[in-house]
Design a protein that fits this description.
single chain, 170 residues
């Protein structure tokens, strides 16, 4: 019973060109779905940026603490935590615990703004809901922490004698 069967290898031959065509078709289908997903995400990000720009306001806050961690229910109230999508709950985020007016809240921010903020200081920022958009009066490009390579490139591009004098003065 098991020995009697159809010999699949005798009637079915696949050439290299057939495999190549199948691979090309599968790759084209995958690229189509990736393109569709990226255009949807791009539209969503534009809508979110427009919403943030429309609702941002300048506020003075006192920064209590900042951390780079996964959000938990103790960071946000239960209602806000449930509104976060699954990927936002699983990934680490830049969060700043601050006193805004009489309330102590946890704000979400981007990495470049997170690097500039100093704990235990009063800072004037642009807020849009729970999203900390920008620090007012600070050029974020200058305050960004530079890697040792970026510092070396700045040292090489500038006059070495002046840089050595600056280091000696410190």
């Amino acid at each position: 019973m098991f020995g009697e069967g159809i010999n699949w290898r005798s009637g079915f031959q696949v050439s290299a060109s057939d495999i190549f065509i199948i691979v090309i078709v599968v790759l084209a289908i995958i690229m189509f779905f990736v393109y569709r997903a990226s255009t949807k995400n791009y539209k969503r990000s534009i809508e979110a940026d427009d919403f943030i720009k429309a609702n941002k306001q300048v506020v003075s806050i006192y920064v209590i603490d900042k951390k780079f961690d996964k959000p938990t229910e103790k960071d946000f109230n239960k209602q806000i935590f449930e509104q976060l999508n699954g990927s936002a709950k699983r990934r680490k985020m830049c969060m700043v615990k601050a006193k805004v007016g009489p309330q102590i809240v946890t704000l979400i921010t981007e990495k470049n703004v997170y690097d500039v903020i100093v704990p235990k200081k009063t800072v004037k920022v642009e807020l849009s809901g729970l999203y900390l958009v920008n620090v007012v009066g600070v050029n974020l490009q200058d305050k960004k922490k530079k890697t040792w390579r970026e510092r070396a490139m700045l040292f090489i591009k500038s006059d070495p004698k002046k840089e050595a004098e600056k280091i000696a003065k410190k």
